[in-house]
Amino acid sequence: WSGCDRARLMQIHGTHRSTWPQRWVTAATHAVAVLAASTILLSAGSGPRTIALISCAAIYFIRTCGTLFLFLRRSVSWPEAASVGTLVLVVHPLFAWFGTHAPAALDGTDLAALALYLAGSALNTGAEAMRRRWKADPAHAGRLYTGGPFRWIRHPNYLGDLLLFTGYARLPRAPWAFLVPAAMLGGFLFVSIPALDRYLADRYRDAYAEWVRRSWRLLPFVY
């Protein structure tokens, strides 16, 4: 990879600039998306599916704010803020609109989808919280964190997002909704993970190589 790519990744992952405007814009955009989704759903009446979809949107909003203002130590670029904002502005309202055309009651597959959503959310946020707590110890400065789920999976936060969006996509009962986690998987595999792996390999070298030998990149026993 080129020196330009390395410099860009070091700027994103290797610095802790606040970039508060990007963070606040992302959070505000997400709040608008959740409000729009809630309005669409409640205008069609209330019911278990309405509650489930609003809850999923709200939980993801709360988790996003936690990531932006508590866990994320690196910079947030404007393109990243725009991509996250676009995602939530499309996904939450569209999932809500199609959800108003689905049966109000939840069946067994819907409950399984909610369980998958909660499991993915817990994996993502739990992994970030454990890493943040470990990194806060000055004795760990400059060291690679490989504890918790990172012991077995190098990108558990990405796996958590895939699980939660797969569960979320079931609730509107619209087959096209599964394009969202599918597109997310493609972005992880071909853009996000390769770029982050290059940065980690360059920064941690031997420690990273050892981690690679004893862990899976995204999905245990598969990849």
Plain-language structure description:
The chain is an all-alpha fold and 223 residues long. 71% of the residues lie in helices and 0% in strands. It has eight helices and no strands. It is globular, with a radius of gyration of 18 Å. The chain starts with a helix and ends in a 10-residue tail after the last helix.
Condensed summary:
The chain is mainly α and 223 residues long. It has eight helices and no strands.
Helical element count?
8
Distance between the termini: 23 Å
> How many DSSP E strands?
0
Helix percentage range: over 70%
String of helices and strands: HHHHHHHH
Write down the Rg: 18 Å
Tertiary shape:
globular
State the low-pLDDT regions, or none: 1-16
Structural class: mainly alpha
Strand content: under 5%
Query: How confident overall, as mean pLDDT?
Result: 90
Instruction: Summarize the main sheet.
Output: none
Keywords, please?
disordered N terminus, mainly alpha, 223 residues, 71% helix
Secondary-structure map:
Layout: H1 3-13, H2 20-43, H3 48-71, H4 78-99, H5 108-135, H6 156-170, H7 179-204, H8 206-213
Helix pairs in contact: 1-7, 2-3, 2-4, 3-4, 3-5, 5-6, 6-7, 7-8
